């Protein structure tokens, strides 16, 4: 019995040791697996998530914000430019097509005229009751000669004139009934607008800017009384002088102006024989 009891005890101890060893192994394995699982779950989470979510986001954001911006900027700068140019060139064209095409006139060069009064192109359009007219001349230098010695002093001392005659109702039977200017340009017109200079009796010949010398006015034909233009009243007016473009711009509101209004031009100056010479719309 003692031997059996000892064997039995030894066997139980061995079994207990083995079982505890197994339990430890299992728990160690469980710990290892658990730690691995934590590693598997933890490591990818911060790193991969950050990479997947953050880096592409930054990259995409940069791409979305930067590249398209550049492209859009390029588009904004390039595409609208031709579009705007087309608009700038086309919009006024359709807008003014009926007016501008009907109201643009080219005038032949005339070497017998002083270049400053030789009209080469004329156009006008009407905005509300405002008439805007552009007169292009063969040459319009920064300075011109005034009080030319040969210009006769006296009543008829007109030296330069750039004028418009306005048939406000488009009816030649109303307005000035006869030539109220040097030529027939004024017949049927209700207004004139001009910039003119009359040679001064007491002044020497002088070279000066046109803007310093010219006087602008608008006159209305008010009736047949007096000597043709005797029934006029005058208003101050402004004419824009652009020597760099050889251009004069007339801009003024005329009561009653409509799309039926007709505008005619007439310029005057002195030729080499010092005779008064004109350029008029045909
Ligand atoms: Ca001409
Ligand atoms: Ca008229």
Q: Your description of this structure?
A:
With 282 residues, this protein is α+β, with helices and mostly antiparallel strands. The chain has 2 domains: 2-77; 100-280. Helices cover 36% and strands 29% of the residues. The chain has helices at 2-42, 44-78, 80-90, 92-102, 210-213, and strands at 104-106, 119-127, 130-137, 143-146, 158-167, 191-198, 206-209, 215-220, 233-236, 239-242, 247-253, 262-270, 276-280. Strands 9-8-6-5-12-13 form a 6-stranded antiparallel β-sheet, with no helix packed on it. It has a 5-stranded antiparallel β-sheet with strand order 1-2-3-11-10. Strands 4-7 form a two-stranded antiparallel ribbon. The longest helix is centred in the first third of the chain and has 41 residues, at 2-42. It is elongated, with a radius of gyration of 47 Å. Residues 32-101 have low confidence and may be disordered.
Question: Helix tally?
Answer: 5
Q: Tell me, what's the shape?
A: elongated
Bound molecule types: calcium ion
Give helix and strand order, one letter per element, not per position: HHHHEEEEEEEHEEEEEE
Strand order of the largest sheet: 9-8-6-5-12-13
List segments where confidence is low: pLDDT < 50 over at least 5 consecutive residues: 32-101
Helix content: 25-40%
Could you tell me the number of beta strands? 13
> In percent terms, what proportion of residues is strand?
25-35%
SSE layout:
Blueprint: H1 2-42, H2 44-78, H3 80-90, H4 92-102, E1 104-106, E2 119-127, E3 130-137, E4 143-146, E5 158-167, E6 191-198, E7 206-209, H5 210-213, E8 215-220, E9 233-236, E10 239-242, E11 247-253, E12 262-270, E13 276-280
Antiparallel strand pairs: 1-2, 2-3, 3-11, 4-7, 5-6, 5-12, 6-8, 8-9, 10-11, 12-13
The protein binds calcium ion (2 copies).
